[in-house]
Amino acid sequence: MKKSIVLSAFLTLAFTFGALAQEVKTEEKKRELGHYNENKFRQMYDEMATPNMFRTASGAPGPAYYQQKADYKMNLELDDKNKKLYGSETITYYNNAKESLEYLWVQLDQNIERPDSKTPLVESQNMDKAISTSGFAKKYMGSPFQGGFNIEYVKDAKGNPMKYTINQTMMRIDLPKPLKNGEKVSFSIKWWYNIVNYMEGANNGRSGYEQFPDGNRLFVMAQFFPRMAVYNDVEGWQNMQFWGRGEFALVFGDYEVNITVPADHVMEATGVLQNRSEVFTAEQVKRWELAERTFDKPVVIVTQEEAVAKESSFSDKKKTWKFKAQNVRDFGFSTSRKFIIDAMAVDLPTNKPLAISIYPKEANPLWGDLSTKAVAHTLKTYSHFTFDYPYPKAVSVSAEDQGMEYPMICWNYGRPDEKGFVSDRIKYGMLGVIIHEVGHNFFPMIVNSDERQWSWMDEGLNTFLEYLTETSFDPNFPATRGPAKNIVPYMKGNQKYLEPIMSNSENIYQFGANAYGKPATGLNILRETIMGRELFDHAFKTYANRWKFKHPTPEDFFRTMEDASAVDLDWFWRGWFYSTDYTDIGVKTVKQYYVSTEASKETQAMFNRRGRKISDGEPMLYLVAEDAPDFKPELKKAMDVNSVQALSDYVNKNYTAEEKNALKSPKYFYEVEFEKPGGLIMPIIVELQFEDGTSETQKFPAQIWRRNNDTAKRVFATEKKVVKIQVDPKLETADIDVENNYWPKAEKESKFDTLEKK
After folding, report:
1. How far is residue 397 CA from its own chain's centroid?
2. pTM confidence score
3. Strands of 217-221's sheet in order across
4. Which DSSP state fits 746?
5. pLDDT, tens digit, for every residue of 60-118?
6. Contact between 298 and 364 (Cβ < 8 Å)
7. How far apart are CA 387 and CA 551, in angstroms?
């Protein structure tokens, strides 16, 4: 007791009185029925999958974890004039599962563009009250686009036809005999399809061509080949149909791809170009080699003058570009005779990848000034928070009205207007898209989550890192997703149009807010408010490294974040990810107490009920609320330790001079009751503002709500008079109603008052 400080003595006393108060008998009432555990802090054993040998309780891959592999060898030819793509591929599929496979599932995502596609039929329609003539003709009078894969054959390694069945965007290939563990099978597919103008209402706007007035086209080619579906320990074959929103669950493998295009085209693609000297001029090769050792600014490899000179040529000759890529989950390429190319090297601790941009003259000077710099900054920032970017390059392609990602390459929005003007909206919009799409190299191209099932695992995690990258690129970056306050309009919206983050992408009303904004905000709250940066960053990096080049599930992420930090977050996952609850924490009541050496009648009654006398034991001090019936006005003053004889005597007797100098001297005492009208659990962040203009912030962990989901009380003993109390002063918790965050209550200005000021 000797080392106890004054404040501890008062808090102990307050707790004792509180315990006594609970002894007041209540009226008998009808016995209530029992209930299941509905505590917000209960563990998530029921919600999460049971750990096993494939996926451990720690969130790490288990000793029996496996994943399949698929290697591709492709020959492609793009017919620019007729807007067709012809292709043939040989797929070698490796079965690493313990069980045998009787058939294989292949994704045919281009079939979303078939005339008989069911995708347009699953959306509700309203009658257009007004529509342009071109829109009317296209919608009601035109013939449907003749898109989708035309499969010419599926053959085994010996050239024999294989039996296959196409169900919308999926193709089942029946094997002549089961493919056992450790075995592989090779088969070939030949196909062609009509390339869609993605700007003109394509069902799948991620791929196709952009048409320029002079007859030139810019092709962004993806989902262009039959691709193996994922088979794993969680759901077997991931063969959900592609409806257009839920993206792609894919298998890692090695690619060898030969792409034949008009000879005047320039392109970039996933992988390393094998024949640069055949497709570039000698001077362009020298520029490329310079870019590989230049780390401070982009080197222009194909100049604007060189690109413009070819725009009217429309060569009838052909060139073949040869690419190889190792351990990637997909392949994309972009080609046009209009392309300018610039690049610079990025200095990472274990790798020196190239940041590359390709763009038409219509994108300059914006792209030449900023794109490659943004790519380089993204690789550095994401690498810092996860792992060093392992691939040899990252390419940003200027494609109007685009934002889509593939391994090592992505298509990005943003160009000056016809007069060359660049607004801040366009500039920052472009930068945000580039950072986001390049960032997707990490999630999900390397940390390979199931996009078709859990969009938030790639979009949400990536948006969170996008926010950190944007603000480090430019401290004044107008980031729209990440800060807690920005998600409030969504969180307070009509519950009819809200779904938990843990919802399939096809079933979400507000996809952007749900899959991008809310999970990114949640991670930011974890980092800044709940866990702290050090613990969060370590756990997040642990997750990224555990699951790079693997297939994580939501449980793997949740468990790893807890396992690597020793922070119990079940309450957070359940509230933020599994529900549509919202945050609303406010100040319910504030009572000021004063120190007295005389017990109030209420206190005396409490002692009597306990069979105790006030005179028993050591001298007592009493804290009396200002609204107590027998409150004496003379008590209403700041406490002075020296003026309270019993306390002064105790301090002088039990503390050395040095210890007394370290003691606090509380003068004012406040009991604050907080309420939680919202269902979401969050820490209580309280700012006390004092009479002299200074302030103090205290934060109480979310566990303060563990025994009472509705209210929580805290006692504040201060040396200065409190004039204002505010909950969540920096808007860190996405509180949807800040009107109850203040004491005294902020007065609302009436409409009459507003008019009087005018």
Report:
1. 23
2. 0.91
3. 208-211, 217-221, 333-336, 266-269
4. P
5. 999 999 999 999 999 999 999 999 999 999 999 999 999 999 999 999 999 998 888 88
6. no
7. 16
